[in-house]
Design a protein that fits this description.
Layout (H helix, E strand, L loop, with lengths): L4 H20 L7 H20 L3 H24 L5
Helix pairs in contact: 1-3, 2-3
């Protein structure tokens, strides 16, 4: 790992997080099952990128997984989820 690699990864995740918030708004997940569904979907897309040896796709899907996880953590922390 080179100097700045982690900073670059975090910057890419924050950029995607900002894009997702702009695109979908600041609503929260309504349940743990919704969080699971989103994370599982992103994981399946990452799996496909690995099977296809799509390095750029793998990076993109890992960023999507990170964004989904962050949004899930925020949703769980609000105390406003139904279940």
């Amino acid at each position: 790992m080179k100097d700045g690699d982690i900073d670059n990864a975090i910057s890419a995740i924050l950029e995607m997080l900002s894009n997702r918030l702009d695109e979908k708004g600041r609503g929260i997940f309504i349940s743990s099952h919704e969080i699971l569904g989103i994370v599982a979907e992103e994981y399946a897309e990452f799996t496909k990128a690995v099977e296809d040896n799509d390095v750029a796709g793998q990076r993109s899907e890992l960023i999507d997984i990170a964004v989904a996880a962050i949004l899930g953590v925020v949703a769980r922390s609000t105390g406003k989820m139904d279940w």
